[in-house]
Give the backbone structure.
Amino acid sequence: MSLSIIAIDPGKSGGIAFLNADGASEACNMPETPKDLCEIFDAAFSESLLKSTPLKAYVEEVGGYLGQAQPASAAFVFGQGYGEIIGILTHARIPFELVRPQKWQKALSLGKSGTPKGCDQKTRERYKREWKHKLREVAQRLFPHLDVTLAKADALLILEYGRRLENVTVKPPPGVAKQWLPGGSDQAAQPELLQ
């Protein structure tokens, strides 16, 4: 099936990843303004119309608790940005699915990000940092032709989750071995990327 997919990791330190109907992927940091966000969605929507392919978005579903205590002002800003994403997708009539981090991480066999109970703030931060670096490494292996940063990693992994759900194939960029691409001929080898 030919489908374009947008994957969104909300938040100022999040990112957006895109897979077009030709199988090409790209990613960027979360735009700073709603106007910039609209421009990205408009470009994706225009390309989808131009190629007569459907477009679907996968947005990481988040709750009010962001993994650690947050000041009310930070939670408000995060919620406002999340609402802008949902509002812009809705206004642009881009169908979307909300997906919890645990769901896409389990589907990609990433394990759990759990921090041992009863540990101090410094230890929790270390575990979180290690987990984020692990996700970045996996995303880099899945998308070796892209410059994967911590900001883009989750969006790219959500993109891979959506790609697998929608059974969308990709074309390898020049010089990239097919078995290392999402949907490549060696699917069984992909879980090894996590080690």
User: Anything to note?
Assistant: The helical segments are 34-50, 72-91, 101-107, 121-142, 150-166. The first strand starts at residue 4 and ends at 9.
